[in-house]
Each structure stands twice: as structure tokens, then as C-alpha cells.
Amino acid sequence: MSREDPPSAGVVTVLAGATVVPVDPARRVLDDAAVAFTDRVLAVGPTAEVRAAHPDAHVVDCTGRLVLPGFVNTHTHLFQTLLKGLGDDRVLSDWFLTMTGPSAAELTEEDCSAAALHGCAEALTTGTTTLVDFMYVHPRPRLGDAVASAMSDIGIRGVVARGYMTAGADVGAPPELVQPLDAALGDAERLIGEWNRPGSRVTVGLAPCMSWTVDEPTLRETRALADRTGALVTMHLAESAFDVEESVRRFGIRDVPLAERTGLLGPDLLAVHCVQVDEHDLRLIGESGTKVSHNPCSNLYLGSGFAPVPAMHRRGIPVGLASDGPASSSNHSMLQAMKFAALLHKGVHRDPEVMTAEKALEMATIDGARAVGLEDAVGSLEVGKRADVVVLDLSNLCATPLHAAVSSLVYSQRGDEVERVYVDGRLVVDGGRLVTADEAEVRSRSAAAAAALTARAGTDRFAHRRWRSLIGA
Q1: Can you give the pTM of this predicted structure?
Q2: 93 pLDDT exceeds 60?
């Protein structure tokens, strides 16, 4: 498919001749089909019918292409784009306390802007149109503003979850990252007031970080602010054994029951990871309507374990998929996350039927939209929803011969198949290249920021480690 000039504003675009997987309630897979849209989806159906209904449309020939709803990444940390490859072979607590935390303490507005632009560019060019950034470190003012502005400028749909730590110095959290509760929530409320307006493509949520970096008043006041503003809430829960053990030490109970005791659990809470949950935790999550974000690549990278996602599905818990931050997943690719999610649970349970390619795609689209409260707007190609659309070329050697489109998408893709991406009907990726920013400039800014940040923090030393075929050998 050659690059084409985008249509004028308000003109109908028709993606024609494609295999369309709308992830609609009927779970159809449509051959020789088309999608028509402006800023919202107007029609999905046979190419001849859609073209006849929109004779004056701007038509894009998508023969041999796969057309999908944009992916929804329910959890990442955009600032960690600057820290790729520095945290290898460490458990979560060591990874945070020795590399990620010290680096985060040195973040500037320029760092956050450069990282967010690069991370969102990665996301868009790999098919993600909606992203939740869990921005949990604020050693300086207005870092959340830098992230939100970058998201807005590059054209992605996003939630900047304004995070905070109000405790944790006793176990090594950098003091620069620990904020007074009133300062953290005051800044969060300011951001919510500035960004959470009807029709906003970028909004702000609330993100108390994890059980060993908060106290009970933090969680109770978070719930009160969320109830007052309607903002999404998200928190790392039961990610590692350390999280659970510290919660028991500090509060006398595990961190999921702690969230229940403080009123944090509920339909507007996105619980991230939930790797170390037990049956009681799952019951609390299910009964409260809490949603879950599954981060398979990060959980494996840090050796944290695996979330019992099939058990969550059996309980009817909505589970969205996520990349997590690149300091623990190395990129923002939901294509990668889908394959890991589909394969991980088959191996863990020794059951090839426990997770399907179709379910992995659902988790990356409509289930992810449900997890962040946007299922009425995105996550599927249905008439009236926002036109967040991805076009993929699966004609490469890895994905062909192509028998089953969803199987090839999840299991056979190389990761560079995304050809076009639309957000709100606006073309943001064309021919696999970002339209809304200069990719070379984005890479140059992030490279300079990464070098300066890690030098200031002293964490650049992790880039020069000796060769290790086996740890301790």
C-alpha cells in the first residue's frame, strides 16, 4: 500500500477490500470487507455495500490487509522509555531500589517529554491507539503536564495516571520521590481540572503506587478524590511476593484486602499485575467489580511469576492487556504482549486450550477498553464508536501462508506489520511511519535525555556490566 494524502476534515474514509476483525459482539471475521468512518465509525460490512453507501468517500485499497480496532495498552510507564536494558536479571524490589528509583529521582520536564513522545511513537507504530501511563514519580513540578502535552501533541488517546508515593523511605524508596499527600492530591486535582473535559482525548487519573509506598490515609483520600471527580484509579497490587509481605508487615493484611478495607476496590479501579493473588483476593476483586491489567512480559522479565488470568476469566473479572514500562518489558508493543499472553498460560497450565489467540486479541482491544472504562468509545469497530483503527500487512514471510487471520496476528507476526493507524479518524501512522512527529527527532531527543538522565543518576553503570552467561558463575 503506497502512502496517500489524507482526506480533508469531515470527508468519509473507506478502508476497502480488507479482512476485517471488528471484535464486535458477534466476533465476526469478514473477508473482502470495508470500514467507513469520519471521526466515528459509520459502517462495517462487505466492501461493495459500504462503498455504495459512501460514493464520495476517500477510498484506501486495503486488499491483502487486516483491519482491526486499535489496541488498548492498560498499563505502562512512559518515562521508563529512557531506561531500556538497564534492569536485566533483577527481582522487582532490587530493580526499583537500585536502578529505576534512583533514575526516576533525577527526571526533568524535558526527560518526561522526550520519553513520552518516544514511547507514544512506539505505541502508535505498533498499533496502540489508547494508552494508560502510570506516572508515579514526581521529584519536580509539572512532570505530569509534560507527559499529557506529549500525548496530546502526538495524537494518541491516553490517560495520564498521576501517581504518588507517600511512604516507603524506610525500605529504600528515594526520598525525592516521597511526597506529602496533600501536595500529591492537590496536583492531581489540578491536572484533572485542566484535562478531564467532555470529549477530551487525553485525561488524567489517580495512581497510588504500591502498598509499600503508601499509607491508609493515602488510599482513603484517593477514593474520596476519585468519587468527587470521576477519575480512573489504578494501583500496582500483588505484583511480587515483596509487595504482599510488606503489606502484611505494615498493615497486618495482604494488599488486595488492604485496598478493600480502605474503599479503593471498585468498578473504577484498575488493579495492575495481580500476580500473587490468592482465592480470597480474587473473590474481593470479582465482587467489587475491580478490573485487572495483565502484564505478561514484565512479570516474566522480573521473575515475579504469572497472574492467574484464566481463573479471573472464570470469575468474570475484566482483564486488559499491557506492555508495562520499557525498563521491565523493553518496549511498548502490544503485539509482543499478545503473543506472550497467549503462550504463557498454555505452558504454565500445561493446557493448550486455556488461552486462545482470539482471547489474547480481546484482551488487547475490547477487554482493555472495558478495563479502563472506555468500552462505549473504543475497543471494537462498531457504528458510533470512535474511529481508532489499525491496518496491518500480514504478507511477510513469517505470517504467510495465511490461513487464520487472528492466529497469524498473534503467533506469527514479526512486529513491524502495522501500516496505518487512525485515532479519532485522523491518520497518525502511514506506511508504517509516524505522521504526527519526526521520528528521527523523537529518537534523537530521547537518546540525549537517556544519556543525561542515567549519567546524573549514576545508573549508566548498568549499561557496562560484564558478560554473564550465568549469574554467579
Answers
A1: 0.96
A2: yes
pLDDT value of residue 2: 46
pLDDT digits (tens, 9 = 90+) for 30-49: 999 999 999 999 999 999 99
Phi and psi at residue 313, to the nearest 5°:
-60, -40
Summarize the confidence of residues 89-114 as an average pLDDT: 94
Report d(CA 328, CA 299) in Å as an integer.
8
Q: What is the distance, to the nearest Å, from the Cα of residue 329 to the centroid of all Cα atoms in its chain?
A: 12
Kindly tell me the sign of the dihedral angle through the C-alpha atoms of 384, 436, 200, 224. positive
Angle of CA points 201, 135, 126, to nearest 5°: 60
Half-sphere exposure of 179 (CA within 13 A, CB side): 23
CB-based contacts of 129, cutoff 8 Å, min separation 6: 69, 70, 71, 72, 156, 157, 378, 388, 389, 390, 421, 422, 423
Contacts with 336 (C-beta within 8 Å, 6 or more apart), sequence order? 297, 323, 329, 415
Residues 400/95, Cβ–Cβ less than 8 Å:
no
Which fold is adopted by the domain 71-371?
TIM Barrel (3.20.20)
Q: Helix (H, G, I), strand (E, B), or coil: what is residue 278?
A: coil
- For residue 177, the 8-state DSSP code is G
Rounded to 5 degrees, φ, ψ at 189 are -65, -35
CA distance 465 to 222: 41
- Beta strand 128-135 pairing with 426-430: unpaired
Give 266's DSSP letter.
S
Q: Taken in order 74, 77, 81, 85, is the CA torsion positive or negative?
A: negative
Q: Is the pLDDT of residue 8 over 80?
A: no
Tell me how far apart the alpha carbons of residues 207 and 159 are, in angstroms, rounded to a whole number.
Answer: 11
Q: Can you say whether residue 178 is alpha, beta or left, with left for phi > 0 and alpha for psi between -120 and 50 degrees?
A: beta
What is each CA distance from 175 to 136, 139, 280, in whole angstroms? 14, 9, 34
- Beta carbons of 215 and 166 less than 8 angstroms apart: yes
Provide the residue type at 376 as one letter: D
- CB 126 within 8 Å of CB 420: no
What are the sequence ranges of the domains in the chain?
A: 13-69+380-434, 71-371
Helix (H) / strand (E) element for 33: namely: strand 30-37
Q: Judge residue 465's burial from the number of C-beta atoms within 10 Å of its C-beta, 0-12 exposed, 13-18 middle, 19 or more buried.
A: exposed
Look at the block and give the residue holding cell 503489606: 247
Residue scoring higher pLDDT (465 or 170): 170
Alpha helices in 80-171, H assignment, sequence order = 92-95, 101-104, 109-125, 143-154
Bridge partners, residue 293, by sequence: 272, 320
Question: Looking at the domain that runs over 13-69+380-434, which CATH code has it been given?
Answer: 2.30.40.10
Do 381 and 22 meet the contact criterion of CB atoms below 8 Å apart? yes
